[in-house]
Amino acid sequence: xxxxxxEYVKVNLPAGFxxxxxxxxxxxxxxxxxxxxxxGSDQECYYDGHIxxxxxxxxxxxxxxxxxxxxxKEVIDKDHLLITCDPTNIASIxxxxxxxxxxxxxxxxxxHLKKLFASDECEKMIYRWNITS
Length: 133
Description:
It comes from Coprobacillus cateniformis. GO terms for molecular function: acyltransferase activity, transferring groups other than amino-acyl groups. InterPro entries: Acyl_CoA_acyltransferase, GNAT_dom. Residues 23-101 form the N-acetyltransferase domain. This is N-acetyltransferase domain-containing protein. The chain is mainly beta. It has one domain: Aminopeptidase (3-Layer(aba) Sandwich), CATH 3.40.630. The protein is built from two helices and seven strands. It has helices at 64-72, 90-98, and strands spanning 2-9, 20-27, 30-38, 51-55, 80-85, 102-108, 123-130. The strands form two sheets. Strands 1-2-3-4 form a four-stranded antiparallel beta sheet, with helices on one face. A three-stranded antiparallel beta sheet has the order 5-7-6, covered by helices on one side. A hairpin with a 2-residue loop joins strand 2 (20-27) and strand 3. The radius of gyration is 14 Å and the shape is globular.
């Protein structure tokens, strides 16, 4: 597996968005998904997390999101990141647990941030991933 940087987005961002990098997750020269690394402090990324990932449906079940997160460690310059997920997203919870993340809490998304999330997203499980451990 390898990650290929597709784009670094830092200008013309919508209000409330922080700069971020989009990587393609590549297995045997095929893109199987994408992973995003967001810049910002824990406070700024508390509800959406520093990392977001998506594995295309036909490639799910192979722990590619876990492997991609581990590869992403090579470009992370912090000792920890936040990863969040919807409480109903069992696959993402399993990924987060496989990474050994520490569960912090489940919080309702504040009303002033709702516009940054899908309309059906109401709360987030918030985890801390200690990069150096």
